[in-house]
Amino acid sequence: MRVHVVSDVHGNSRDLAAAGDGADALVCLGDLLLFVDYADHTRGILPDLFGAGNASRYVALRTARRHEEARALMAGLWAGDGEGGEDGADGEDGAGGGRRAALLEEAVRRQYAELFAAFPTPTYATYGNVDVPRLWPEYAAGGTTVLDGGTAEIGGWRFGFVGGGLPGPMRTPYEVDEETYAAKVAALGEVDVLCSHIPPLVPELCYDTVARRFERGSEALLEAVRAVRPRYALFGHVHQPLVGRMRIGRTECVNVGHFKATGRPWVLEW
User: Fold this and answer.
1) 207/205 Cα distance (integer angstroms)
2) Which residues is 234 bridged to in the sheet?
C-alpha cells in the first residue's frame, strides 16, 4: 500500500490535484483555506476583499502578536473607517455583522469548490483549525470521506482522524475546548495510524522556528500515543517545526509538512 498525506494546503489547489498520483489513497489533515499568505500578501481572502496593503498591515500586527490591534484593524476595514475591533476570520459577529459573514462565506465557498474538486478518489480528510466544517458536506464528493473523531480502514490498517485545533489568541474558525478534543481522541480506540491536524503536546514538535512561537499541541494526543501505541502519529499545523519527526515509544510521530509551500505529499508505504 502507498498512501500520500498532506496538511496545511492553504489554497494550493494546483499541487493538490497531483498529490494523489501514484498512491492508493490520499489523506488530508486540514487547513484547506487561505485567509492570508504570510509570504505573499497579495494572495488570500483578506487581500481579495481589502487589498494587499491592508493585508500587509494585518500580517505585521499578528506577527508582532498584537492580536487586539489586528482585530481592531479588521473591524475598521469592515466598517470602512480603519478603526474598531473584531477579526474577520474568527467566526464571531462584530462590525459588519451579516454583511461580513456573507462576504466571507462567499470567498470561502469559492476556495472550497476549487480545492475539493482537486481531491483524487479515494481521499480521507479531516478539518484544520483554519477550516469551516459546516460547509464541507456540500463540497465533499463521493470519493472523499470526511472524518472527525472517526476511523477508516485503508489497506488493512485502521486510521483514526481528529480534526480542528485548540483555542489560541488568533481565534481561528475551528477551535474546540480541551475536553471536547480529548473526547474525539478517546472515541477512536485502537488505531494503527493516528491522524490529526495539530501535533501531540511535545515542545519540539510544537515550536515554529520562523514564527518563533509555540503552536498549540494536544495532551490528549500525546496520551493516546503513549497508551494506544499506534505505528504512526501524523499531523501538520506547525509550518516550520523545530523537529519534524521523532519516535515516542513504538510510535513514529511525523509532521507531514507545509503542503502550500512544498507542494509535495508525505509518503507512507507498507
Assistant:
1) 6
2) 195, 254
Torsion angles phi and psi, residue 177, rounded to 5: -75, 165
Distance CA 171, CA 233 (A): 25
Whole-structure pTM value: 0.89
Q: Which three cell numbers stand for residue 50?
A: 481589502
265: Cβ contacts below 8 Å, ≥ 6 apart:
4, 5, 6, 19, 20, 23, 26, 256, 259
Each residue's pLDDT expressed in tens, for the chain with a length of 270 residues: 999 999 999 999 999 999 999 999 999 999 999 988 888 898 888 898 889 999 999 889 988 888 889 888 888 887 764 433 333 343 344 444 567 778 889 999 999 999 999 999 999 999 999 999 999 999 998 899 999 999 999 999 999 999 999 998 878 899 999 999 999 999 999 999 999 999 999 999 999 999 889 999 999 999 999 999 999 999 999 999 999 999 999 999 999 999 999 999 999 999
Q: Within 13 Å of residue 152, how many CA atoms lie on the same side as its CB?
A: 18
Give pairs for 266-270: CB < 8 Å, separation 24+. 266/4, 266/5, 266/6, 266/234, 267/2, 267/3, 267/4, 267/5, 267/23, 268/2, 268/3, 268/4, 268/5, 268/193, 268/232, 268/234, 269/1, 269/2, 269/3, 270/1, 270/155, 270/157
| Longest Cα separation, the chain | 57
